[in-house]
Design brief:
globular, 9 strands, three-stranded antiparallel beta sheet, 272 residues, single chain
């Protein structure tokens, strides 16, 4: 019954009548079927099986700070709770890829095309625009994008959005970056997500993913959030906490390395 195709009346009325289906290989967090409809067309149906506990993510992040003896401002939990409310994807209807990382983008004569839409969902596009600042949080080849390339990609996104919709991008990029910061599962590869609290591991072990350690990923994300929230109306305490935690992590031994710059293309080196 767990692998039964979830094709209810709403899907039938919208997509069509399924004729036969095949369960495909997928990550532990979802089940995916290829479905042939009665009109002979093919569709992909994906069912998410792991639901994140976002109140728990906020508490886990604050517990991490306390484990490194970083004072937690009394309003930090209130700020994070309000942040998660603002990041609720329900009011947003952009189609997000879910894993827009190097390796999932194909360069063609017609432009860039993305593949691997297993994690696709509706939501706020700023969540994926934040990848460039926050260091590609769902990718083994985390990297830093700064300066002119960062400014260019963000300007293109905002200009394209305005041209398509007639209004500015809704939401706050600082919120999206802070949302990635407190996702402890964004420290490990997909197969290990949802298994344990990854933040709870950080004080005692600096585990690696793709040659980059959890603390190195964290220090980059903390620095980004600290920089973006200076003077921020709704994330002032979170920003101060991020700055203090980044300093404490960086003071440890061995010394942490900065994320590689985007133009080093570490995934090419790994494959060569």
């Amino acid at each position: 019954m767990l692998n039964r195709l979830p094709f209810d009346e709403a899907l039938r009325s919208t997509v069509g009548v399924p004729e036969r289906s095949k369960l495909l290989d997928s990550s532990p967090g979802s089940r995916v079927w290829r479905v042939r409809l009665a009109d002979r067309s093919l569709v992909i149906v994906k069912q998410i099986t792991d639901g994140g506990d976002t109140g728990a993510e906020a508490e886990s992040f604050l517990t991490l700070a306390r484990a490194f003896d970083v004072p937690v401002p009394s309003v930090a939990l209130d700020e994070l709770t309000a942040l998660l409310d603002r990041l609720d994807p329900a009011p947003h209807h952009g189609l997000l890829h879910g894993d827009p990382c190097p390796g999932n983008d194909l360069r063609t004569t017609d432009g860039v095309r993305y593949v691997d839409f297993e994690r696709a969902a509706l939501g706020n596009g700023l969540v994926e625009l934040a990848y460039f600042r926050i260091g590609f949080p769902t990718c083994w080849c985390a990297m830093s994008v700064t300066g002119a390339p960062l400014a260019e990609v963000e300007a293109i996104y905002r200009t394209t959005w305005r041209g398509l919709t007639g209004h500015d991008v809704p939401g706050d990029l600082a919120d999206a970056c802070a949302g990635w910061l407190i996702q402890e599962d964004a420290l490990v590869e997909r197969a290990h997500r949802g298994t344990v609290d990854q933040f709870a591991r950080v004080p005692t072990e600096d585990f690696a993913w793709g040659g980059i350690s959890a603390r190195e990923r964290l220090v980059h994300r903390l620095g980004v959030v600290a920089g973006m929230t200076r003077g921020h109306d709704h994330l002032h305490a979170v920003g101060r906490l991020s700055s203090a935690l980044a300093a404490r992590l960086s003071a440890g031994r061995p010394a942490l390395r900065p994320l590689p710059a985007h133009d080093t293309r570490p995934w090419i080196q790994a494959e060569s």
